[in-house]
User: Fold this.
Amino acid sequence: MTTRKTEIGGYPSPAEWARDLNRRTVLKGGVALAGLSAIGVSCGSDAATEFTGSIGDAGGALTIGSNASDPAPQAGLAAVVASFPNEDVEVTINTLDHNTYQENINAILQAGEDDVLAWFAGFRNKFFADQGLLGDISDVWDQVDGLGAGFLAASTATDGKQYFMPTSYYTWAVNYSKSLFAEKGYSEPSNVDELLGLADDMASDGITPFVFANDGQWPIMGTFDILNMRINGYDFHIDLMGGKHEWTDERVRNVFTTWESLLPYHQTGANGRTWQEGAAALETGECGMYLLGTFAASASEALAADMDFFNFPEIDPAIGAGALDAPIDGFQMIAEPKNAAAAKELLLHMSTAAAQDAYLSEDPSVVASNSGANTSVYNDLQKKSAALAGSATGISQFLDRDTIPDFAGECGNMFAEFIEDPSKVDGLLADLEEKKVAIFADYS
Assistant:
C-alpha cells in the first residue's frame, strides 16, 4: 500500500444543480433515501471498455485513490482488495488523509493517477459526472445484485447513466458512552427539553455535555443540518441547500438562535480540534455526547465496544424527529482510466455482499449497502443504525454533499466564524446569502 502526495488543488467550478427529490425512495432492506437529479451540461465519459459481466478476464495494474486514512477504514479497504477474486489484477491503494483528499478531489480526478476513487453518492457524484470527469459504469450496474432502487437513484446522473458504486452508509446521531450513562444513571432523551436536562446534569457532574470538533470545517455542518431539519423540516432543509430560500430568512435565523443557546453546552476551541480528538474526549468521559456519524466508533476499539447513540430528539412536535443525515459512501471510476476493464471488475466486486462483508470485518462502524450482506454479525451499533435509517421519513446526504461544492465551502467558513462569535450572526448570514446568490447565478 502506498501513500501519495498531492499538490494544491480545490473544488472545481460547478454547473448549477437543482434538486428534483424523490423524497421517499426506499432502499432494498428498508432504508429511505432522498434521490437526486441534476440540471446541467453533458455528463461523464462513455466507458472505454465494455464490461463483459464477469470477474477474471482483466489483468494488469490498477490503482485506487482512497480517503480511508484512519486505521479501521484503511484495513477495511485492504480486506476488500484482498478478497478480489481476480489475481491477474495488481491493485495498489493510494491513500491520502481524509480532509486533504476531499479538498483536492478535483486535482486528483484531473491528474488521472488512479483508476478508481473513493467518493460520495448523490449530488457530489453527479456533479463530477456532469463535468465529464467520471466514467460511465452502467454496464457494471447491469450485473449488480443486491442494491435497491434508492442506491441506484443515488448513483445515476443527468443522462440516466450510473457513475457510482455504493458500498456502505452510516447515520448521524448523538453518540455516547454506555458505561458513562450507566455509571451516572443518564437516560436517552426523547425531546429537546429532556436533552437540555441531560446536558445540565452532565455539567453538574463536571462533564462537558457535547464534544465539539470542526477541523476541516465539515463536522459541525451536521449540527446545522439536524437543527434545521428539526426546526424547519426536511423539505425546507433540502430546498435551502438547493438555493431556493434566503439565508436571511427568519426561519434560518431561528436555527442559529437555537444553536447559540446550545453552544455553552459544547467544548470550546472546536475549529482546532479533529473529529478523532473529539472521539477521544467521548471515550475518556471528558464529554458526554457527540453529534457525529457512527463512524466515530472507528476511532478506537475501546470506543467501538462502549459506544451507543440516540437520534437527535424533536424540537417541534409538529415536525418530529424523522429526518436525519445518512450519507452513502462508495467508489467511482475516472473518465479515462488506464485499466477500465480491471476497474469495472473491481467495482462489481465492491458491490457484492462478499466484498462488503470483508470490509465490515475490519470496520464495523458502517452498514453494508448490499441486502445480501451478513447482518447476523452486525454489532449493536450497526443494527441500530440500520433500524434508524429504515424508520426515517427523510434522509439527506450531508450539507457538503447536498449543495454546490463552492457554496458548501462558504457555509463551512460561516459556521466556523459563528461558533467563535455568535454575535456576528446577522452579518454572517447576510454575507452568506450574497455569496449564495453569486455562486448560484454564475451557473444559471
In short: The CA atoms of residues 215 and 274 lie 5 Å apart. The mean pLDDT is 88. The chain has 19 helices and 15 strands. Residues 425-442 form the longest helix (18 residues).
